[in-house]
Specification:
Blueprint lengths: L10 E7 L7 H12 L5 E7 L3 H5 L3 E3 L5 H8 L15 H13 L2 E8 L1 H17 L4 E6 L15 H21 L3 E6 L6 H4 L14 E3 L7 H15 L2 E6 L11 H10 L17 H14 L5 E5 L13 H19 L4 E11 L2 E8 L16 E2 L3 E2 L2 H10 L14
Parallel strand pairs: 1-2, 1-4, 4-5, 5-10, 6-8, 6-9, 7-8
Antiparallel strand pairs: 2-3, 10-11, 12-13
Helix pairs in contact: 1-3, 1-11, 4-5
Length: 411
């Protein structure tokens, strides 16, 4: 027995990575391994190849004897070292999972992922209770969308936000050199945190992005076109950040999904029924054409869809993000070894100055399958992000490059 009153289990542990990769997801993997290694209750530490799919396919990588130097290199490597998965286990799938848990005497299950992954963790945990199978089941948070309930922020977000901020800094300089209208479409199906990070590129009054559109506010094309025209008339250029998840007022699906359905007659979804929005280019093409139709065919308009670039870009690495990602893995393993039955690790901010956080173990049901959105206090009208958001994000991403200009009238 231990201080929680629950007996420690003798058996093997399995760790999986799920959903979209991040720059720091492997930090969490290594955090779990480091904490479990050498503990008398855990015999083997198994990494399942491509998430739960690796469990049912008996595809495991033994991790308990991997040298620490190699683990440290893995931790600093972007993307999911074990391979990831979008599989959503149903009852039959879960039955197969438990057959393999029993086969390999797996008593500790750690799943690193976002809200869909936490729901998978909850389903597996509930089935373990139903079947009377003794299992310690823990969700380790990860998502660049920053949309997990009860978290101030999630591992992976800060590094992706730093990418977005630096990409917009570069694009703003480019847009000054060759003025025109530029649109960047950024990940974020329901939450605008990543798109809001573009505001970090602003250092002076006329810096871009000049307009920012997030999913939390209904999108109106007429207002958008007027906004763009007003900025263009004032500055002779316009840089725009748009979330891939924006939707029209009253619409039951994102605008990008509407456009995809109109062009092909169908909407692509994954196993979690999430609409595929990233990388299609539908939104960026739509905006370019709409602006030309409104402002004239000769208007210089360009657009990019950042897509998967935001997830595992090796050049944008937040030290705070890496440290916290390592720690949530450790905290999950510590909770399991203390005899806790299940839960999700949450990061909660205690103070801004100095920046300080705490890690808390929360119930799986309070985070599983739920979505946290950007607080409306950070949104100005329908097209901008408040300066207070910079205060929220700055401690997470750290210093950004310093740039200078020789242009006429430089601030």
């Amino acid at each position: 027995m231990n201080e929680t009153g629950n007996p420690l289990l003798k058996g093997n542990a399995v760790i999986g990575q799920s959903g979209g990769p991040t720059v720091v997801i492997n930090q969490s993997l290594v955090g779990v391994v480091e904490t479990l290694r050498g503990h008398g209750s855990v015999e083997k530490i198994l990494g399942c190849h491509h998430g739960v799919r690796g469990i049912v396919n008996d595809q495991f990588i033994e991790l308990q004897d991997v040298p620490q130097q190699r683990l440290d290199r893995v931790a600093q490597t972007p993307s999911a070292a074990l391979g990831s998965s979008r599989d959503k286990p149903d009852e039959e799938y879960c039955q197969r999972i438990f057959e393999h848990f029993a086969k390999h005497n797996i008593r500790y299950f750690f799943y690193i992922g976002g809200n869909d992954s936490s729901d998978t963790c909850r389903i597996v945990n509930d089935l373990a209770d139903t079947k009377g199978y003794e299992l310690r089941c823990f969700h380790v948070p990860k998502t660049i969308d920053n949309d997990l309930m009860h978290n101030d922020h999630t591992p992976g977000y800060a590094s992706a936000a730093k990418f977005v901020a630096q990409a917009f800094m570069g694009d703003d300089l480019d847009n000054r050199a060759l003025p025109g209208i530029k649109i960047n479409v950024i990940m974020g199906r329901h939450a605008g945190f990543l798109t809001a990070a573009s505001v970090m590129a602003r250092h002076n009054v006329n810096d871009g992005p000049h307009l920012i559109y997030v999913p939390e506010v209904a999108f109106r094309l007429d207002d958008f076109l007027k906004d763009v025209e007003d900025v263009y008339k004032r500055l002779g250029r316009c840089l725009i950040a748009v979330s891939e998840g924006i939707h029209r007022e009253g619409a039951d699906k994102p605008l990008g999904a509407e456009l995809a359905e109109a062009s092909s007659g169908k909407i692509d979804t994954d196993d979690h029924n999430n609409v595929q929005l990233s990388g299609t280019g539908a939104l960026s093409d739509y905006f370019c054409q709409a602006i030309r139709d409104h402002m004239g065919a000769k208007t210089r308009v360009r657009a990019d869809t950042f897509g998967y670039l935001q997830r595992s870009f090796a050049g944008c690495y937040s030290a705070v993000d890496a440290q916290e990602a390592r720690m949530v893995g450790r905290k999950a393993a510590e909770a399991a070894l203390m005899g806790n039955l299940d839960g999700s690790i949450a990061i909660q901010r205690v103070s801004d100055n100095p920046y300080r956080i705490e890690y808390q173990l929360i119930d799986l049901k309070s985070v599983a399958g739920k979505t946290r959105t950007l607080d409306r206090k950070f949104i100005i009208g329908g097209n901008d992000i408040a300066p207070t958001f910079k205060q929220y994000l700055q401690p997470l991403i750290g210093a950004l490059p310093v740039v200078e200009s020789l242009r006429i009238g430089a601030e």
